[in-house]
Amino acid sequence: MVFSPTSSVRASCLELIRQSGSVAINISALEKFSNEIAQSIHSNQSLQVAEWDTDGWHYTGKTYQRRKYQNDELYELMRMERVGLYILSMDAINFCFWPSSSCSAKNGLEYEHLAIALRKVAEMDDASDNRQEYTGSGDSNTFVQAESSYVLSPFNLAALTSKKLQSLLQPHFPPSSESIVYGLPGIDVRCRLLNELGKGLLDHHNGSALNMISKANQSADSLVKIILDTFPGFRDYVDKESWTNKNNSCDWNAAKSSTSVIHFYKRAQIAVADVWAALGRCSTSSQKCHFTDMKLITTFPDYRVPQILRQVGALQYTPALAAKVDNQEELDEGGVDEVSIRAGTVVAVEEMVELVKKRLTDIAESDSSEESKENLYKLLEDVSAVTIDWYLWQRGEKQDRLNLLGPHHRVRTTYY
């Protein structure tokens, strides 16, 4: 049987949550929350999900300039290659910002700070008019390679050092104070993952992000699999056998077919969703990133989405687990509690997608306005685990800034 990462996530999480003793899904609360979202979509005639770079955090290549091919197809391919490398780099190191290097000050670093810093690093040679030749082909059916002046080129990523990475990012973070610091924890691990990214692209995909993407043949599920097969750092799974004996955890080849493995693949899936959002969803320049099976991608089980689901009562923890989370105790990475929270998040969002679509269908069928009804049916097509995840994450970020959320679960992990 061919391994499907997204199907494995759904099936293994559903099986676990049916057996879980520490996390439960409150269907009544989930239905109420889903109805609220559907009603809001109807009222606003919109999914209310910000586009990929609405806030200006991410690198888009819009300021990328090269006179030698400014107006032809190669220019657009080079821009897309740079954006693809930015996305893969960002999602390779997008995890666990909360640990602080200070005993007295908390770490204020958030996703947006890293995204902006990496964007500024990516823009460093945007306006360069060097005469370096590209490697590869301008044929959209093959590939291009980023110029060596691009900091995030595979060659540069493969040779990156921790010291260099720190020097590139830190100047772009907000200034620290006595009560709050802005620093990227685990710099050595993040550098290793970027080295792995660069080397994997060079060894397996001709040093080209677009070459890797094109091998998926417009399939999001296939691209997740390619990422997992190429880059070990994205292999986000837990073998239940390790709960009784840590030496029993299976390797990657065995994990694909093992019935004891719980699959998540948060960073691999979000990388594919980011590629789709940045280069496929609203772009007409290339078909490479117009994935035809985006609905197969699951929610991205991290800490923010379960935090929101718990707040509205849709996810319920046992008193013992609730106390650990509320007291900000660190959970064991890959332990029963952490895995149950993540699995519950996947299953809850899957159920939410169906509930929101059902409610929107009911609203559309009873709507007297043909224009409103037609628009709702169009919006229905865009309701998926990805767009619901974006909605929940963006809602969570806003509420967190207003201190309206309770604590999230804490785990020292490289997976989210």
In short:
The chain has 416 residues and is mainly alpha-helical.
Structure, described:
It is a single chain. This protein has 416 residues and is mostly helical. It is built from 16 helices and six strands. The strands form three sheets. The chain has a two-stranded antiparallel ribbon. A two-stranded parallel sheet has the order 2-3. α2 (27-44) crosses α14 (336-366). The longest helix has 31 residues, at 336-366. The radius of gyration is 22 Å and the shape is globular. The model has no long low-confidence stretch (mean pLDDT 92).
Provide keyphrases for this structure.
two-stranded parallel sheet; 4% strand; mainly alpha; two-stranded antiparallel ribbon; 416 residues
Structural class: mainly alpha
Radius of gyration: 22 Å
How many helices in DSSP terms? 16
**What proportion strand?**
under 5%
Adjacency order of strands in the biggest sheet:
1-6
Assembly form of the protein: single chain
Shape: globular
Number of strands: 6
Helix percentage: 40-55%
